């Protein structure tokens, strides 16, 4: 579940050193674009780094659920909760480094999927 932050910012940046995506666990390599998301929770700042594909996927999942149902690091739970072949297929592609952009909820591998 998303936590309410006192302050929040996000920006697309280029990695100057390797980072780990908080959603996929994949290494964000030097020179790769990623989303740096910072928030103030109570009295401490936290930073989350998402590869571009995971950023789009998490935004699409939360938009489709109609609320901020899945916080940082919880998108894998959304895939289980939705239990739809197209969502699982799209997540598999994101886990392998794909950026499906706005078409994140579609998957060419699944016939008749959502």
Please give a structural write-up.
The chain has a three-stranded antiparallel β-sheet with strand order 1-4-5. A two-stranded antiparallel sheet has the order 2-3. 28% of the residues are buried. The chain starts with 6 loop residues before the first strand and ends in a 19-residue tail after the last helix. It is of the alpha+beta class. Helix content is 29%, strand content 25%. The protein has one domain (7-103). The protein is globular, with a radius of gyration of 14 Å. It has helices at 52-65, 75-82, 85-95, and strands spanning 7-14, 19-20, 27-28, 33-41, 44-51.
Give the secondary structure arrangement, pairings included.
Layout: E1 7-14, E2 19-20, E3 27-28, E4 33-41, E5 44-51, H1 52-65, H2 75-82, H3 85-95
Output the keywords.
3-stranded antiparallel sheet; alpha+beta; disordered C terminus; two-stranded antiparallel ribbon; 114 residues; 5 strands; globular
């Amino acid at each position: 579940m998303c936590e309410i932050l006192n302050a929040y910012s996000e920006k697309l940046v280029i990695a100057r050193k390797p980072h780990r995506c908080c959603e996929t666990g994949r290494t964000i390599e030097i020179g790769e674009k990623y989303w740096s998301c910072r928030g103030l929770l109570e009295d401490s700042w936290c930073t989350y780094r998402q590869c571009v594909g995971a950023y789009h996927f998490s935004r699409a999942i939360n938009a489709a659920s109609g609320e901020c149902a899945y916080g940082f690091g919880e998108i894998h739970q959304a895939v289980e909760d939705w239990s739809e072949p197209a969502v699982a297929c799209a997540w598999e592609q994101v886990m392998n480094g794909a950026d499906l952009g706005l078409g994140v909820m579609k998957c060419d591998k699944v016939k008749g999927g959502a």
